[in-house]
Specification:
Layout lengths: L3 H38 L6 H16 L4 H12 L5 H10 L1 H6 L1 H30 L12
Helix pairs in contact: 1-2, 1-3
Length: 144
């Protein structure tokens, strides 16, 4: 059985990646816990996970780089992001009567926020285009 050494070679990196990923998941959860603790202690209107994410961002900027293991872990979490919407969907179904009672306000809020988002995005794009002086090149201009 000459394949025994190849099996060991391929298993070792997987264990190392798993250990590294668990370590970085722990780091992410610790930052979330710190954010929750600060948010609760100072009665901030900012959710703890958002505060924790901001603290993680500041830490990574001060460090100057993103560790490879953190990148692998974040990509793994993001690839399964849709699973995080399941609890929200269940919550919506549990409180469907509230949505039924407030559907008009929810609809107005959705429409207004969508229009405002499109308007702000367009304004930012126009402003950045003017600021950078970025003009479309000849290959980007459409001739009908």
């Amino acid at each position: 059985m000459g394949g025994g050494t190849n099996g060991n070679i391929t298993r070792a990196p997987k264990r190392q990646i798993l250990r590294m990923t668990l370590g970085f998941i722990t780091v992410l959860l610790v930052y979330q816990l710190i954010g929750e603790a600060v948010s609760t202690a100072f009665d901030l209107p900012l959710p703890g996970p958002v505060l924790g994410m901001a603290l993680l961002f500041v830490s990574l900027v001060l460090k100057g780089s993103l560790p490879d293991g953190m990148k692998v872990t974040a990509q793994g979490i993001l690839s399964h992001l849709s699973l995080l919407f399941v609890p929200a969907g269940v919550g919506v179904m549990m409180h469907l009567h509230l949505i039924k009672d407030e559907w008009q306000a929810i609809s107005v809020a959705l429409i207004v926020s969508t229009v405002l988002t499109i308007a702000v995005t367009g304004a930012v794009m126009v402003g950045l285009t003017r600021l950078t002086g970025d003009r479309p090149g000849p290959e980007e201009v459409k001739h009908d």
